[in-house]
Amino acid sequence: MGSGDDNGLGLFGPGSVTWRVHSEPIIALGGLRALYLQPAHPRAMAGVAQNSDFRTDPWGRLARTSIYVATVVYGTTEQANRAGERLRGLHARMWATDPHTGERFRIDEPDLLRWVHVTEIDSFLTTARRAGVALTDDEADRYVHEQRRAAELVGLAADEVPGSVAEIQEYYREVLPRLRMTREAAESLLFLSAPPMRWGLGYTPARAAWLGLAALGIGLLPPWARKLYGLPALPTTDLTASLSARALRLTLRALPRNLFEGPIYKSAMARAARATPTVGDRSTPGSA
């Protein structure tokens, strides 16, 4: 799995598939895909809608989520554990009401944590592969297995989440009967597609660019999810989304590296270079 037991190199380390996948700038598109997939779970959606500030501060929430993921992936073991402890503490204080049954529930229920975990790692992995990141089936399974360490940080046991791509698909088959399009989900999807833009960018080409990314994030959803949302689920949609994701990845990789090298990533590369002098030369820039 890499250097998971080395505090300086973190939970995964330079030999992991996780570092390889998350070094790709296109991984941010995977995060957007996950945001479009997660509202399909009514109970999870209720938990977010009743506790999150995503409507009043969408970009701040996105930034905080990105920093958390980057810390788990590229931070030291101590940093990752602290981030997980803070998140568990925050979730432990949050409750929501099921809009259909009226039942009160904690948002850190294992079923809800599992849904968020699976949709995230599936979205990161699926987006990377469809965008052209060369991963064998074995490497894809290794990524899913490695991410069990991330699941432990939010309070799940490693064996409570899928450990392979096949197990992810089996999980989706099991949970599908509980998924549906709700009013809250529809409102969330619309908000994600047209959020308030910062710095007056709502009347600039930035709005059109975001709409394009949103459409691509939706196009990368599994056909069953698009069908659930009442959206086209044709094979041509999958092909178009894959081609667009590949084109976007090539565009991003042509841009200067420092646009995507955040401080957490840079610190990880520096630690890895000190541990193994050639490690820093083998990775491509990360997104946080």
UniProtKB/TrEMBL annotation:
Using the record's annotation, list all stretches that form the ER-bound oxygenase mpaB/mpaB'/Rubber oxygenase catalytic domain. 19-253
Q: Which InterPro entries match?
A: MPAB/Lcp_cat_dom
Q: Which GO terms describe its molecular function?
A: oxidoreductase activity
A Pfam family annotated for this chain is MPAB_Lcp_cat
UniProt name for this protein: ER-bound oxygenase mpaB/mpaB'/Rubber oxygenase catalytic domain-containing protein
Q: Which organism is it from?
A: Planosporangium mesophilum
